[in-house]
């Protein structure tokens, strides 16, 4: 019976690859039948089942996977590589099962309609349009900094508990009146990651577990960055699997909320991407725009920069390579560079 199960799972893997190929060519199918159908039901069920657990069940699942792989490798070595055919079958069956569960509970969202098509906006924009949008963000950011900071030379200090920030972000989603985005977020399911220290060394602020749909955030990052990080992970939980789309949603949700601290986090988040994009197009103009920012705003940026510099090392380079390749495999051909395309969504959406 065991061999029959292993054979069925192993043979199922190439059929999964064929299905993925077909779905890549038909994103409208994925959007209609999965993202707006099965996933809406399954994700809500996952939230109800796991949100009450105070720790990340998904992190424990990852730990169990690593343990299973280590034990399997140990047994392979201990057996002196005998019965390689059976071992290979076990490995294929294991990969096939994990691949199936990954796509069933979340991964098919990688092949849904691009967000700009759902919103009916373009992905093209001129330098003049980017300049106008960036200037508007700078003005709003400076005005808000003047309201929240003691003077123009100090950063905006987020003297709140992480749980408070988490509650604000959840309320931003539930109270949102944005009719363009489909954000049926009914059950709060964000948790501190048990792997926050490794995440810091790897250069990651958070992630969503595709098997449990729990959102995990790196609790070590500066509190000023937590609102957009949390909003980004909720965007993933809602089925927007691509990084640029989750960044766009995080920006919109926080910038449009009434909470001034969420607004500031969102404005500076969107502004960072806009200034980076402007620097690629016109470095001198970018520097001139940066000079218009209040010194305190730059200190908020510096706070985040110094945090990541404290954890910079070879692990980060390895993780960037691994995750970049992961994105490429999952329908994001530009890998880590796909993060930059949030600017195209922002500029055209606010046109």
UniProtKB/TrEMBL annotation:
Cited Pfam families: DUF3810
Taxonomy, superkingdom: Bacteria
Transmembrane regions: 60-77, 89-108
Keywords: Membrane, Transmembrane, Transmembrane helix
Name the record gives this protein: DUF3810 domain-containing protein
Annotated organism of origin: Psychroflexus sediminis
């Amino acid at each position: 019976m065991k061999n029959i199960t292993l054979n069925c799972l192993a043979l199922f893997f190439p059929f999964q690859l064929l299905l993925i190929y077909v779905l890549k060519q038909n994103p409208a199918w994925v959007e209609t039948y999965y993202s707006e159908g099965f996933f809406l039901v399954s994700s809500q069920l996952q939230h109800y089942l796991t949100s009450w657990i105070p720790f990340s069940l998904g992190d424990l699942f990852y730990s169990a996977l690593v343990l299973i792989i280590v034990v399997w490798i140990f047994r392979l070595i201990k057996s002196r590589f005998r019965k390689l055919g059976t071992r290979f079958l076990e490995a294929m069956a294991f990969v096939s099962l994990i691949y199936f569960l990954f796509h069933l509970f979340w991964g098919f969202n990688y092949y849904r309609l691009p967000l700009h098509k759902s919103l009916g906006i373009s992905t093209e924009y001129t330098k003049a349009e980017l300049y106008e949008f960036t200037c508007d963000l700078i003005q709003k950011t400076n005005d808000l900094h003047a309201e929240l900071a003691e003077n123009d030379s100090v950063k905006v200090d987020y003297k709140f508990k992480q749980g408070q920030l988490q509650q604000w972000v959840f309320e931003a989603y539930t109270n949102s009146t944005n009719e363009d985005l489909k954000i049926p977020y009914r059950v709060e399911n964000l948790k501190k990651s048990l792997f926050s220290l490794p995440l810091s060394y790897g250069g990651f602020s958070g992630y969503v577990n595709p098997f449990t749909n729990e959102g995990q955030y790196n609790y070590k990052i500066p509190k000023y960055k937590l609102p957009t990080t949390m909003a980004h992970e909720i965007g993933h939980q809602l089925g927007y699997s691509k990084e640029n789309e989750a960044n766009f949603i995080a920006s919109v949700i926080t910038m449009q909320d009434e909470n001034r601290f969420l607004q500031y986090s969102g404005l500076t988040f969107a502004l960072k991407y806009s200034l980076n994009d402007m620097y690629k197009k016109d470095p001198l103009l970018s520097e001139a725009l940066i000079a218009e920012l209040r010194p305190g705003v730059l200190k908020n940026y510096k706070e985040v920069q110094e945090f990541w510099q404290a954890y910079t090392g070879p692990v980060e380079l390895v993780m960037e390579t691994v995750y970049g390749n992961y994105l490429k495999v999952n329908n994001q051909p530009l890998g880590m560079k796909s993060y930059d395309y949030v600017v195209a969504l922002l500029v055209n959406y606010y046109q």
